Structures are given as C-alpha cells and as structure tokens.
Amino acid sequence: MATVLITGASQGSGKATALLFAQKGYDVVLAARQPDRLEQAAEAVRGLGRQALAVPTDVAEAKSVDHLVEQALVKFGAIDVLVNNAGICLTGTMADTTAADWQQIMNTNFWGYVYTIQALLPQFLQRGQGAIVNVGSFGGKMPLPNMTAYCASKYAVTGLTDTLRLELAPKGIQVCAVHPGVINSDFLERAMFRGQDEQDSTARRQQLESTLQGAWVSQPQDIAQAIWEAVTKRRSEVVVGAVAVATEAYRLLPGAMQWMLSQAAK
C-alpha cells in the first residue's frame, strides 16, 4: 500500500493534496503546526477510507522533523512520496526586512525542505525508489517586486530541487518541482508584511488581498492536481496556471521583464 507524507497539510493546498492522494488510494501522513486543524484534515482522509497519521510538526526544527519521520515509519513502514509544501510568505523591501525575518522565512521555506529530505532519504536510497515533490513558487522562477526574502527562499528551493534531481535520478528516486502562483487559500494567515510603518505594511496586505481576485491566482485543488500529475507522470517540473506565461516570458525576455517588474515596484 502506497503512503504519502505531506508537510503544511492542515489547510489550503496541503490539505487538498492529502485528500486527492487519499482518493487515489494512498495512506497519508499529515504534518503541520496546528494540532486541531491537522487532526480535522486527518479525519477527512479517514472519511475517504484511507489511513491517516497526524503529527504536529514545526518543519523549521530538525528534531521536530526527525520525530515526524520516525512516527511515519513506525506506523507505515515506508514512505513512497514526500510532498514538501509547508511555507510562509513575506512581502517587504530589503530595507524593511530584518535579519530575524530572513531567518524565519529561510528556516521554513528552505531548511524545512532540507530536513524532511535528509530524514527520509536513507529509506528512499535503501529501497531504490520514491518521489520527492518540492512545492516552490513562480517567485522561485522569476523575481517579484518587494519580495526579496521570499524569492530568495524559493530560488533556493529551485536550486535544491534541480540539483538533487541530477543526484538521485540514477538511484531510482524521482525529484520534481511544482511552482504555483499566488494561492487562494488560508495562507494570508501566515503571511508577513513589512513596511516603513504600520500604514505601509497594511497597504502591502491590502495589495496582496486584491491580487487574490486576479487571474494569476491558483486554487488549492489546482496545486494538488499538479502534484499528483508530477508524481504519476514523472514530471520534473510543473508551473501551475496562468503564471506559466509570466515565467516563460521571463526565461525568454529577462531584460524586458526586469524593466516591467521594476516599474511595478515603484
């Protein structure tokens, strides 16, 4: 019986992914920081007739991740698919972003992925099979105005994923990236906004809230479907929805796109 481990699984795209994999016959290990929401998501998986293990986890802490993987392997014996999905968003200029902000976003968005991969890699290598899906962002494919810290964390995920794929493909382990646009889910609860003052920070929040009404927005179910297709069709990378146009334009015309983005940042 196949098993998937998903971080950031208590809500949004993580929960949608857990439910989709359960519908497809997978047992699910769910990890997130909020125990109540996490258990509700696990119950939804059980309601689909699959086994679920909910393990409250802070992916920014290596020991917490080690405990997660230990519990998962005790319960199910093996993990077939790892979906690294936990993440936070930070909007603000470099001048308004503190060192503590940088540490927080890198600990969650980058180190959280590294910790889960390191913890699960030995059993993947021993079995000579497995799939790792790193959920990145179109902000890991192109720069976004006033999001230096966020984009740095997501570009790091892109580099991690692309290089790890070269390393693990000969060993039978699939590594793929799924890059959504802005996700229309509960992620605003975890988003951070930094400005010169409270009014500036509020304006940045309002700007992102208005963005959630636009065509660039991905729905949680879109991300879940992209992750499923990445695993089952052995895709190396999936850019979700309308942002694929923007990332391709940046790849082909980086200078023009840089100019357009710089104007948007003013």
Characterise this structure.
Strand 1, helix 1 and strand 2 form a beta-alpha-beta unit. The protein has nine helices and nine strands. Helix 1 packs parallel to helix 2 and helix 3 packs parallel to helix 4. The N and C termini lie far apart (53 Å). The mean pLDDT is 88. The protein has a single domain, classed as Rossmann fold. With 266 residues, it is of the alpha/beta class. The longest helix is centred in the middle third of the chain and has 29 residues.
CATH topology: Rossmann fold
What is the CATH architecture assignment?
3-Layer(aba) Sandwich
Q: State the oligomer.
A: single chain
Helix content: 40-55%
**Main beta sheet, described?**
7 strands, parallel
